[in-house]
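Our consortium's second objective concerns turning raw sequence data into structural hypotheses that experimental partners can test. To show how far this objective has progressed, the report includes one record in full. It was chosen at random from the queue rather than selected for favorable results. The single chain below, 353 residues long, was entered without modification.
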Amino acid sequence: MIKLQEIEGHDAAREMLARMLDNDRVPHAMLFQGPENVGKATTALAFAACLLCETRGSVACGRCDPCRLLEAGTHPDCIMLGLEAKPSSPSGRKKSAGPIAPEDLRKIITVDQIRGMAQHVGLAPRMGRHRVFLIDPADQMNAEAQNALLKTLEEPPGQAVLLLIARRPNLLLPTVRSRCFALRFAAFRSDVLTEMLVARGISRSEALARASLAEGRFGRALEMELDELQARREQVLETLEGLVASAAEAVPRIPASAAELAGKTERSLLEGLEILQGLLRDAGRAQADPSDPHLVNADLGPRLARIGGTLGPTRTAALVASVEKLRGELRFNLNRTLLAEGLLAAIGGGPLP
């Protein structure tokens, strides 16, 4: 179990949480928001450990019964709510045992899950002073679920602490966001992430490559299949370069390029969109300075500067926003290939999707 004081890179958030704990002024609902795999859920769990630990304060001991139960995932006062497995197929075939693949998970957290949680929120803690409820990913609650949660947020029981974890907080209702204390987690700069990886024993050359491909996300940098992701990024970049350099020549290839971007699963398309969005965002920055240390894809500065210079800052920013919008719409079972085709056509000069 990672302790709160061991959280790397998010100093402001860590210090804010420590002050809350040391002063015994913990909000009843908190929103941990930021890009995927930057440490939101890890920090939230470390914060929960402090709330549940027998020592109290901002340093969980890791040795008491509550700490051991939390690490084992069996603490009775820590309830985690997430995406559930899809029901069995109409044929009645049960899914195999073991970890659930992402494509076998529902796309939303349902109102029934929230209502089930609400039945436990008002109960007294079994072991300490608090009951902690983690909702991850909170931004994948549907509107009905969010409205059900709102009733709990409006009349919070004194001993319950709700921790919402969201990659896209804009998908939460304004009334939900306004009732949560928000903590923002940013992606790491490429050079900072490189040093974090080197500190874990990864060679500098590999750390540089991983940091450039991870889009500032520490978890992704550690877990990625390096060669596979490098090849995918190069594929997306070449498509982007072709569309920007000569739309007339690239447009006939859009269907094939869109099929490559979409891949065979929603997860594959999501990865492709994340890569594309990161490249476009960096292209806007690299136009002014190809060696900008804030570039996530720092190893591609000159190539991205040419893309940014051709598109211009206004068009580049609009395309970045369009990619973010489409990533959110994946929840609604849109045709992946058509979605990718519309986006690539927009990069080639067509209307924004």
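The partners drew two points from this record. The chain is about 50% helix and 5% strand. The longest strand covers residues 160-166. Both points have been shared with the crystallography group to help prioritize constructs.
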